[in-house]
Target: L-rhamnose catabolism isomerase
Amino acid sequence: MIDQQLVQEHNERLVTGVEDDFAALSVKLARVGVDADAMVARAKGFAVALPSWGLGTGGTRFARFPGPGEPRNIFEKVSDCAVVHQLGAATPTISLHIPWDTPSDPSELLGFATERDMAFDAMNSNTFQDQLDQPHSYKYGSLSSADKGAREQAIAHNIEVIELGQKLGSSALTVWVGDGSNFPGQQDFTRTFERYLESTKSVYQALPDDWKMLLEHKIFEPAFYSTVIQDWGSSYLAATEIGQRCACLVDLGHHAPNVNIEMIVARLAQFGKLGGFHFNDSKYGDDDLDSGSINPYQLFLVFNELVNLEMSGRPFSPFYMLDQSHNVTDPIESLIYSAAEVQRAFVKASLIDREALAAFQDDNDPMMAQATLKAAYNLDVEPILQMARYQSGGAIDPVIAYRASGYRAQCGIDRPAAKTLSSGIV
Ligand code: LRH
Ligand code: MN
Ligand code: MN
Model:
């Protein structure tokens, strides 16, 4: 972890300016009946989970350019996550990917995380890759494979992930499969989906009563012609067939360009099947860029739906996770930044005058309806986020504090990387 003294000194240098900015914003918000302190409290209550796979440089299928001091195992990943949370104060949990993160001793891992005030969020299974010494290949699919052996192996893996998650205090399993086909005619759509449903139901039978199972859809990749759970429609059908504790997970990067994701969110929520999110941003496909870096307005509109849902008083507790990894930034900085962008969208969406919006909608006044959304979106809520971090013991400007700490350089010394030239596959 970073020396808390350093964080304090950083905050002391900035806090007067933040207090001034916050006071000015409070006056402005008070004019429209909003209590800025209540917004700080909301921001402090907001949390999004970190993806364990986002702490290293993800790269692309062409090349990976590892940075210095990247984590080499799950313990080092947890250490980095703890730093992200220490400074950004919005990410108290970690979503693990198995077998990438399988610990030899789960209780040791749990203890290590707890000592750093971190806990475990949804567990991710992985049947999109073959593992060493595994008897059946996933080359032609996993839960939906025509090969019964591959299906049974994938079911058993998912059940093992649940069992491990129970030891770590998790309460959800996220299932994303790359199953699909590259050529017309390669697979029978209906029979493939039937096999998927049958396998997934077997996994569901092993789901503890207080767990959720989240089905993550994705339009394409690695399959380039058809994917079994390609969109929210297939995901909804599957989740409905499978059972009450099964719901859909929306990864923002898993849709065709220009798809109205916020409307998908509303639909799933309306029918009780909105299970959770993988937040990231993209311009072309599943780009896994930092949240809010390309289309922050879309993120805000997603949170408009989520806050609306919360205000409606319906039971609602989706899992919020980041899912990003790429080539050009320090992953700790990117994760701090993304978490703050998601939190920003949440705060801005909380500022929408919902009564006015509903009235403009009922009056068929599109100009004023969209202006009501924009009034909240265009507000600079940075002082609220800064104040929330400050009050939570985080850093007012977490990326600056992180850079000043020299944490990465120290990791470069403590974590000597094996000397290999990483090659891309074109
Ligand atoms: C698939 C995906 C899914 C995986 C992760 C590594 O594209 O979004 O969530 O588990 O990437
Ligand atoms: Mn994802
Ligand atoms: Mn993805």
